[in-house]
User: Which sequence fits this backbone?
């Protein structure tokens, strides 16, 4: 159903009917109130009646739609049957054309030949079935023998298990007490041995700790003297020449400085002044924090003494943070990158890792300068060898490096090491060194690195600063050594007590074992008997095992033979099935050729019947579609009528309400207006215009005159205007309906 169409027709029918309802309602109300109520009841009954008609029309439409759907399905099925019958007819025609006497004779001959093939294949299947039956019998016999051998083997195995259990019980009875006692003795001896080893180890630790304390005490006694005596004093002439050179690094000033410094000979002279004390010959780790503190304080004191002689008042500092940064930098950019700054001969090294310095300066957000020296490496015949890492060697390396930087730094270095020591606020022409802290580290090749950092509040390199008193570092070594000694002595005392307890346990275990040595005679006899029974059971088991293996092998062979025979039977059966299928196909060909006339006649009749059925189904579909169109038209008309009834009822109720609230004159005027509306379309137009003007005038007077109850009258007038407009569309509906029909 076209929904848009239904809505449009309903509106037109409602408008046409509404005009008549208004006139009838006004006339009825002018006569009597009772008549108005009767009219309302009549219009309501009309609504119910027309809705019932709509429901009936809808049911008729649904039934017609179902009939159309069923008819369409029948047409589709009949069309498919025609297609199938047409294909069958074409095949029958082709078969009729091929049904010559020669083809029939040839097909009959082929059937005879294939029958011989089928008979031969059937005989082969029968013969192979006999082979399978014989193989199955052999396999069944082998299975029975294997089952018997398996049972015998299981029995023998159970006997072995029983004998083994008996022997184990006898041996357990024989060895239980002795074994327990022996284990106790072994455990006690092991504990005593461990306790003795622990005592020895702790005694050695105590001895080492006592030696470390003695060494640390010697360092404490000697390091202050070393610090005070290991100073480098510069002559006035050297200081003057160095200042001249740093102010103006000309060739003349460089030569004058070199002449005053005296070169390598004077370095050797200074190195010989280093105080060598046997108390400093203690092996230490260069990266140990305490050693690091001693080295950096020692180096800074040497440098600050030189800066003081030079006339500078700003001193370098030393801190734990600067040392940690130095160790981290050297490990990352020298050790991890295999960067040998001097090489193996002193002339084949890579020099400073400048890229590493730049990267680390960016990481710390500060300025960094680096000096490097031979450190722990001495030069022998042009080759570098690693010296023993003792506190003496470390202090001497620092002293020697700083001395070399002052007096043997000519040539390509242009006195840059001396410049880094004696500049103030800048190093090697780079500003930003206003608060210098020194960190000392040794790379894996033994070379010393002196990292000069500008410390700020942001990079924290000046945090955890050291006292520049080397005595403090030495005292820390002594304190640590004394603590280690106290701990070692306490551990030794515990291990000595443990050793005494362990030795007592050994004695008790030895006594327990001796008491049990004479109580095992009966247990030994039982063990001997159990061993004999076990040997016999094992012999029987081996015999049963050999028989079982033999029978299992025979069973496997019989199974293989049966499987092969079954496979051959299946192959013969497949061959027979193929031959039979081909024979059936040939027989069907002969039958088709022989009965070609009958098959063609049947196919022709089936085709004609299918065509007739399709014609009938198509006619039924057309009739159903006609019925559906009628039902659709009836449903549309019923819905239009129902909508008209609803509009009539609504307008009747509205007019009745308006008339009940008006005066007798108003009702008479309304009746006249309705009569005019019903009989004269042109007069209605003038009435509408007048009513509109009166309404405007009254609206203009509302602001200054009181209301006198004319609202009802105006409402009646406006209702009549609306009814008049409805009446204007009556002609449109009649025109539209005529076209539709």
Assistant:
């Amino acid at each position: 159903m076209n929904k848009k169409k239904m809505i449009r027709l309903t509106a037109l029918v409602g408008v046409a009917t509404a005009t008549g309802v208004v006139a009838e309602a006004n006339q009825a109300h002018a006569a009597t109130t009772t008549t108005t109520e009767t009219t309302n009841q009549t219009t309501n009954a009309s609504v119910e009646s027309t809705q019932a008609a709509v429901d009936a029309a809808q049911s008729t439409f649904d039934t017609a739609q179902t009939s159309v759907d069923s008819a369409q399905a029948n047409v589709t099925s009949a069309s498919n049957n025609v297609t199938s019958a047409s294909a069958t007819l074409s095949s029958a025609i082709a078969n009729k054309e091929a049904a010559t006497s020669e083809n029939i004779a040839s097909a009959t001959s082929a059937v005879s030949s294939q029958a011989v093939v089928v008979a031969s294949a059937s005989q082969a299947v029968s013969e192979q079935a006999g082979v399978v039956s014989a193989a199955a019998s052999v396999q069944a016999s082998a299975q029975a023998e294997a089952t018997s051998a398996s049972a015998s083997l299981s029995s023998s195995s159970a006997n072995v298990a029983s004998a083994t259990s008996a022997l184990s019980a006898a041996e357990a009875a024989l060895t239980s007490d002795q074994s327990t006692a022996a284990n106790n003795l072994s455990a006690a001896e092991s504990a005593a041995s461990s306790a003795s080893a622990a005592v020895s180890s702790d005694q050695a630790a105590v001895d080492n700790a006592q030696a470390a304390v003695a060494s640390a005490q010697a360092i404490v006694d000697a390091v202050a003297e070393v610090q005070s005596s290991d100073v480098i004093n510069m002559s006035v002439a050297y200081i003057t020449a160095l200042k001249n050179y740093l102010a103006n690094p000309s060739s003349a000033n460089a030569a004058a400085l070199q002449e005053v410094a005296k070169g390598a000979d004077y370095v050797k002279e200074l190195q010989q002044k280093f105080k060598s004390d046997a108390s400093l010959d203690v092996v230490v780790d260069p990266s140990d924090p305490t050693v690091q503190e001693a080295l950096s304080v020692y180096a800074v004191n040497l440098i600050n003494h030189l800066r003081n002689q030079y006339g500078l008042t700003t001193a370098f500092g030393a801190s734990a943070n600067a040392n940690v940064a130095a160790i981290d930098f050297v490990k990352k950019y020298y050790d991890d990158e295999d960067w040998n700054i001097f090489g193996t001969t002193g002339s084949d090294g890579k020099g400073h890792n400048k890229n590493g310095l730049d990267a680390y300066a960016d990481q710390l957000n500060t300025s960094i300068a680096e000096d490097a020296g031979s450190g722990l490496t001495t030069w022998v015949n042009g080759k570098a060898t690693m010296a023993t890492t003792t506190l003496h060697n470390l202090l001497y390396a620092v002293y020697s490096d700083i001395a070399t930087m002052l007096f043997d730094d000519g040539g390509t270095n242009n006195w840059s090491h001396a410049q880094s020591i004696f500049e103030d606020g800048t190093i090697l022409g780079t500003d930003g060194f206003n608060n210098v802290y020194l960190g000392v580290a040794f790379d894996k090749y033994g070379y010393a690195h002196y990292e000069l950092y500008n410390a700020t509040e942001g990079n924290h390199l000046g945090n955890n600063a050291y006292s520049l008193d080397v005595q403090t570092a030495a005292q820390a070594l002594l304190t640590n050594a004394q603590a280690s000694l106290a701990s070692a002595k306490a551990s030794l005392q515990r291990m000595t007590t443990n050793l005494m307890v362990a030795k007592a346990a050994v004695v008790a275990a030895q006594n327990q074992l001796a008491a049990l040595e004479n109580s095992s005679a009966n247990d030994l006899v039982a063990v001997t008997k159990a061993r004999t029974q076990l040997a016999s059971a094992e012999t029987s088991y081996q015999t049963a095992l050999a028989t079982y293996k033999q029978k299992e092998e025979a069973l496997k062979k019989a199974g293989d033979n049966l499987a092969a025979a079954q496979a051959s039977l299946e192959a013969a059966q497949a061959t027979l099935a193929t031959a039979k299928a081909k024979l059936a196909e040939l027989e069907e060909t002969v039958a088709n050729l022989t009965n070609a006339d009958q098959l063609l006649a049947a196919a022709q009749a089936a085709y004609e019947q299918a065509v007739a059925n399709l014609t009938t189904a198509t006619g039924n579909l057309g009739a159903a579609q006609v019925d559906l169109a009628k039902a659709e038209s009836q449903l549309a008309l019923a819905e239009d009528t129902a909508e008209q009834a609803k509009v009539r009822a609504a307008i009747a109720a509205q007019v009745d309400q308006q008339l009940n609230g008006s005066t007798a004159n108003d009702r008479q005027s309304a009746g006249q207006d309705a009569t005019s509306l019903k009989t004269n379309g042109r007069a209605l137009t003038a009435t509408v215009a007048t009513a509109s003007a009166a309404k405007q005038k009254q609206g203009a007077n509302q602001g200054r005159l009181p209301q006198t109850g004319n609202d009802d009258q105006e409402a009646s007038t406006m209702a009549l205007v609306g009814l008049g407009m409805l009446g204007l569309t009556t002609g449109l509906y009649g025109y539209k309906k005529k076209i539709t029909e």
